[in-house]
Each structure stands twice: as structure tokens, then as C-alpha cells.
Specification:
Mean pLDDT: 94
Number of helices: 12
Strand content: 15-25%
Strand order of the largest sheet: 7-8-9-6-5-10-11
Helix content: 25-40%
Order of helices and strands: HEHEHEHEEHEHHEEHEHEHEEHH
Number of strands: 12
Distance between the termini: 46 Å
Amino acid sequence: KIAPALASGCTVVLKPAELTPLSAQWLGRAAVEAGFPAGVLNIVPGFGVDAGAALVGHPGVNKIAFTGSPATGRSIMRAASENITKISLELGGKSPCIVFADADLDSAVRQTASGAFFNAGQVCSAATRVIVHDSIHDAFVERLTTRAKGLRLGEVFDAGTSFGPLISQKQMDRVLNYVDIGRSQGATATLGGRRADRRGFYVEPTILTDVNEDMTVAREEIFGPVLSVLRFTEERQAIALANGTDYSLAAALWTRDVDRAHRVADQIDAGTVWINTYGPTDTRLPWGGMGGESGIGRDLGRGAIENYTEQKSVWLQYRALAEG
């Protein structure tokens, strides 16, 4: 968000999440060392109820760009309405990954595991729902479980670490509670589902099977290393399952059928759809959801510049200039 705003000629006030202020302060230090003029980029740590609310409600703020939870996004929308402040919201995700019977199974397993467990699942576009054709379901789950068992939890700066801890005790408890809810509703923890036996807020990589579309773990964003596996038999059923939540940020599908790939991608409600891959992005392409719990507006691409600029029409009567 900072780069396109600055490129558009705006000044920026960044209020980082209260649990992650240090990286933002390092960014501010780098800006000073790079020679940014005073006041162009401002880092203001603080809690949402204090610093965040003051910024969002200030009449001198012309634009609010937010990344975070849908609940906070709604609060920002309400506050911004007082001054009719322009906003864009990059909120949650519950990204579906459809694996058809003709898919490259090894590729689908490798990339869904990476998409689900990267950064301990603390990613808005995490691959949290895998929708697998019934004919390959068992083989997929077996390979996915084997791969997840090989993941190494540890310090994030260690080269051999697959993923680190969750951000806080509160988030760890939230994730484990979701797993308990899933079990109570009939899901099976094929792998994990517990706090890891080590110091810190670590949760084991968790795979839930026997999941259906009505379960809480299939509908709500967990934001932890928890992946739910659902079954399908027909293409239209897979599409319905993919579109069966209030989220619309990202999705993926695996198939060797080119026609099916484009047909299904066109019908999935997601701002980004990956085909036979998961996760690549590019600053030249737009990023954002298609409404609902995933927010409004676009980061990256031309849409990012449009976030921080306004269009103006200027009419000029040349005859008056000539007569003058």
C-alpha cells in the first residue's frame, strides 16, 4: 500500500498492527536513511481503539487503506462514513483448491501443502480448503499427510524451518478451538490438531478430513496451519463448494484439461485464480477480493494507483483564448 501511495504523490501514515510494530519501525528507519523528506512516510504504532480510530475518524485523512479482519473492516467502514472518506479493504480469505481426477497429484499435494502451512497459515490467501475428486481423495490425503509430517516447526530464522509459531497465545487458542469445533461437527484430524510440544505458540500442521460445506471449519477463516479436505464428484458440485463461503480473495484448481481449466476459473468467485499452481503474485497485476468478507478495492497493478488518485475533467474553450 505504501509504494503506490507514494508513487501517486501522497503522504502516508502507517499504523501497523499492535502485535507487529517492529518491522514497520525498521521500514520507517530505512525511509529516513534513504532520504525521504520529513512527513512523507510516518509510522504511528498503537492500538486500534486509540491510534487506529483517531486516524480513521480524522477529517484530514483523504484515503484509508486497510488490511486485516472483516470485523475491523466493518468498523472502519462505519467510521469512514462520518467524513465520507474513500476506503479500500483487503480482508479475509477461505481459499478453495479444486483437485480434479486428472490432476498432477504430486504437484497439487506439494503446492496445497505450501499454500496451507506457509507462515503457519497466517496468510489471507492461505490454501485452507482443498476440494478433491472422490476417485483420488484417499490417495491425495495419504500423500498430503506424508508431506505435512515432514514439515519442521522452529525458529523462523533457521534455514531448515518450514514454519514458525502463531503470533500470540490468543491466536493459538483460537486455532485450537476451531479444530475442536471441527471434531465436534464430525471432522477427523488425520494429522495434528494439537499444540506442538515445544516452547512458544506452535500448532502442529493439521489436516481435517470428512469435512462438508456446512461445517464451521469449511466456512470461517481460521488463520492457522489447518487445512480442510472436502470431496466432490461432479464439476458443478466443485464450483458450488468453492463459492460456498462469504470470501472471494483467491482460489486454485488442478487439471490437465485446458477447456475445463478456463471454464472453471471463469465461474469461481475470486479476485485471483491459479491454475496448476498456487501463490505467485506480481506487482503489475491487481490483488483483492470480489466483495463480501474479502473486502473491496484492489492492491497492486493499475488499480493500486487508482486507489490513491482522483480523476478530474478540465474543459477549455479555445475561442475565448484566441479572442483574448
